[in-house]
């Protein structure tokens, strides 16, 4: 009598090959279209790089890198623009980095609290105030504690909403076009603050431009640190601030620094906000490297100088513009290379 053979457990455990998915014509067309667009974009980029290198390589020499701006193409140099970009980056770094790091640490470690937690902290402050009153204390210490209690209860009501609003706005500001920041800098620093159209106004405008990027990158770096490090420090008796400042921030600092370098590399190549704030300035002086004199110095920068030369129809100035583009590209590549090296050297696998 014939019987059906039962499959062995080994045969049941053996994985079956998946059926090959049939490629639909629409998927194939979309794949070809995307690949063609990428190849065309890369081809145009390679063509631009090659043409700029051929046009501007002959214009780069020591006099070009150190000379002043001139109406004579044979004597015109890129040194004034390079110095101006250095001052712009010093101002941008000095303003954006401390504010960005502080905002990132606060939003990631201290602002993420609920209304109930804030109310609990406010009630603890009120209990301490009642104890001070019961012990008969008076004077400045008692008045300060009363103000602290009122501020704690007020912040418990509006604090979470403000924090959520700030987080949403930071995410939105990171995607705003750079020319909008130029209009903001023109209104805020020139019209309202009364600054001149100078390197100081340009540096502050670029600081506004890169501030959301630094905050987002720094928050991601802080978030990547395991919470067990902070909890372990607090379990050993450290306060919340001590655990964050001495354990979390040093561990997250390489990632924060990498994000900062990438943000600065974007700022050094921006021209639209600088054109709105200061316009295209022609000057033959060599700007001072000191940021303290930035408000009296016209707005010199590498992108602005390239734009000024590119507008000139003479072939000699077109070559100078191509040389300036090469110098700016080299600076951008070096800054991104430094960011990659720092990330690979100090990155930790948690």
The sequence of SSEs as H and E is: HHHHHHHHHHHHH
> Distance between termini?
64 Å
Structural class: mainly alpha
Overall pLDDT metric? 85
Radius of gyration: 29 Å
The gross shape turns out to be extended
The DSSP helix count reads: 13
Instruction: State the major sheet.
Output: none
As a percent range, the share of strand residues is under 5%
Helix content: over 70%
What would the keywords be for this entry?
extended; 350 residues; 13 helices; MetI-like fold; 73% helix; single chain; mainly alpha
Question: What would you note in describing this structure?
Answer:
Helices cover 73% and strands 0% of the residues. It has helices at 9-13, 25-56, 62-66, 79-110, 115-134, 140-173, 178-192, 199-224, 227-235, 240-268, 272-278, 302-311, 315-346. Helix 4 packs parallel to helix 8 and helix 9 runs antiparallel to helix 10. It is extended and about 85 Å long. The chain has a domain at 62-111 and 196-346: Orthogonal Bundle (MetI-like fold), CATH 1.10.3720. By secondary structure, it is mostly helical. The model has no long low-confidence stretch (mean pLDDT 85). The longest helix has 34 residues, at 140-173. The chain has 13 helices and no strands.
């Amino acid at each position: 009598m014939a019987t059906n053979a039962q499959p062995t457990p080994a045969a049941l455990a053996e994985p079956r090959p998946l059926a090959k998915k049939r490629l639909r014509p629409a998927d194939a067309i979309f794949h070809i279209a995307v690949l063609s667009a990428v190849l065309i974009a890369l081809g145009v980029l390679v063509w631009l790089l090659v043409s700029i290198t051929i046009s501007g390589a002959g214009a780069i020499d020591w006099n070009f890198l150190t000379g002043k701006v001139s109406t004579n193409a044979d004597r015109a140099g890129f040194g004034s623009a390079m110095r101006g970009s250095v001052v712009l980056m010093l101002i941008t770094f000095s303003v954006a980095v401390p504010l960005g790091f502080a905002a990132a640490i606060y939003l990631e470690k201290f602002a993420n609290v609920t209304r109930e937690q804030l109310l609990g902290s406010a009630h603890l402050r009120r209990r301490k105030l009642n104890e001070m009153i019961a012990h008969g204390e008076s004077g400045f210490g008692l008045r300060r504690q009363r103000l602290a209690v009122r501020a704690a209860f007020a912040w418990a009501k509006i604090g979470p909403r403000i924090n959520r609003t700030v987080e949403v706005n930071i995410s939105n500001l990171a995607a705003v076009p750079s020319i909008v920041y130029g209009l903001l800098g023109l209104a805020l620093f020139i019209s309202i603050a009364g600054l001149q159209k100078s390197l100081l106004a340009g540096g502050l405008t670029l600081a506004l431009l890169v501030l959301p990027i630094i905050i987002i990158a720094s928050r991601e770096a802080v978030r990547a640190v395991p919470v067990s490090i902070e909890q372990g420090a607090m379990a050993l008796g450290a306060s919340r601030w001590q655990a964050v400042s001495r354990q979390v921030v040093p561990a997250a600092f390489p990632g924060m620094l990498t994000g900062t370098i990438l943000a600065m590399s974007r700022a050094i190549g921006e021209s639209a906000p600088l054109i709105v704030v200061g316009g295209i300035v022609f000057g033959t002086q060599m700007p001072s490297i000191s940021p303290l004199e930035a408000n009296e110095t016209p707005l010199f920068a590498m992108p602005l100088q390239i734009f000024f030369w590119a507008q000139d129809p003479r072939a000699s100035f077109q070559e100078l513009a191509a040389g300036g583009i090469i110098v700016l590209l080299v600076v951008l590549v070096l800054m991104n290379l430094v960011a990659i090296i720092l990330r690979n050297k100090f990155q930790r696998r948690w």
